[in-house]
TrEMBL record:
Protein name: 1-aminocyclopropane-1-carboxylate deaminase
Residues annotated with N6-(pyridoxal phosphate)lysine modification: K33
Domain Tryptophan synthase beta chain-like PALP per the UniProt entry, residue ranges: 13-274
Family, per entry: Belongs to the ACC deaminase/D-cysteine desulfhydrase family.
Length: 290
């Protein structure tokens, strides 16, 4: 594991910002995935649980990270995959790492604790991990992103799906009594709910700002404008970003600066949360622009 993760300063189309390169932590357990799993794995070990059971979609970076982490620490791992049975590159990687897959209809999938109890309630070694690793333990791991910082930043940006990473970042900011403003970019429609999710873990939301209009149609949805932006950003900076999470976050940063809602001279840190294998699900969209 490459920790603490590096910080790189870049210039993109006249915009200067810093990037916390959590994407470089590990090839497969990268970004916020390791941050979330770190204390979950410690908790599982303390309870002598050797079978990780988790949940995700067919292109879930969390499933891949859990599969790789289980293999690394010699644990068994199983995942309930939302929807009909499919084959894709992401799930193939999961299976190579030894992850067992259960494809589950979408209605049953909604009640994850019930699925766990039905199939593994009898297994004393089974350990429940929520979708995306959402948990209190995950927020503790993500708070360490803040404690690793050796200099002050005016603004910190992160993408959000469940809000767990954002909750951890805010926890770290509040614990150190920083004036840093946390900007969260939900990657799905109706992202206002992220505020409530964060509030489950951290009560003081005074430094929190949500930017809910950068979902590009919803979770795992994209538009040609975003695909072009990702290509331009990656080609000009040498830093690969994805269309599910980080691409939307960096697009939001540029747009907010151009609209003068964020001072271009402020010190801005973007958290690169990894998830680059999400590109595999959007190859067709990228092929269209080449």
């Amino acid at each position: 594991m490459q920790l603490p993760s590096q910080i790189h300063q870049i210039s993109y189309n006249g915009i200067s910002l810093w990037i916390k390169r959590d994407d470089l932590i590990d090839p497969f357990i990268s970004g916020n995935k390791w941050r979330k799993l770190k204390y979950i794995l410690q908790d599982a070990a303390s309870k002598n649980k050797k079978h990780l059971v988790t949940f995700g979609g067919a292109y879930s970076n969390h499933l891949l990270a859990t599969a790789a982490a289980a293999a690394k620490f010699q644990l068994k791992a199983t995942a309930f995959v939302r929807g009909e049975k499919v084959n894709n590159e992401m799930l193939t990687l999961c299976k190579i790492f030894g992850l067992q897959l259960h494809f589950t209809d979408r209605d049953s999938y909604k009640n994850k604790p019930a699925l766990f109890q039905k199939h593994y309630g009898h297994d004393d070694e089974a350990y429940f991990i929520d979708e995306g690793g959402a948990s209190y333990e995950a927020t503790i791991g993500c708070a360490e992103i803040i404690t690793e910082l050796e200099e002050h930043f005016d603004h910190i940006f992160c993408a959000a799906g469940t809000g767990t990473t954002a909750a951890g970042l805010l926890k770290g900011i509040n614990q150190l009594d920083l004036s840093t403003q946390l900007h969260v970019v939900p990657v799905l429609k109706g992202g206002d709910f992220i505020r409530e999710e964060i509030a489950q873990y951290e009560q003081d939301l005074s430094n929190l700002h949500l930017h809910i209009n950068y979902h590009f149609g919803g979770y795992a949805k994209t538009k040609t404008e975003l695909i072009h932006f990702i290509r331009d950003f990656s080609a000009k900076t040498g830093i690969l970003i994805d269309p599910i999470y980080t691409g939307k976050m960096f697009y939001a940063i540029r747009d907010l600066i151009e609209k003068e809602q964020i001072d271009k001279d402020a010190k801005i840190l973007a958290i690169h949360t990894g998830g680059l294998f999400g590109i595999l699900g959007k190859i067709v969209e990228f092929d269209k622009i080449f």
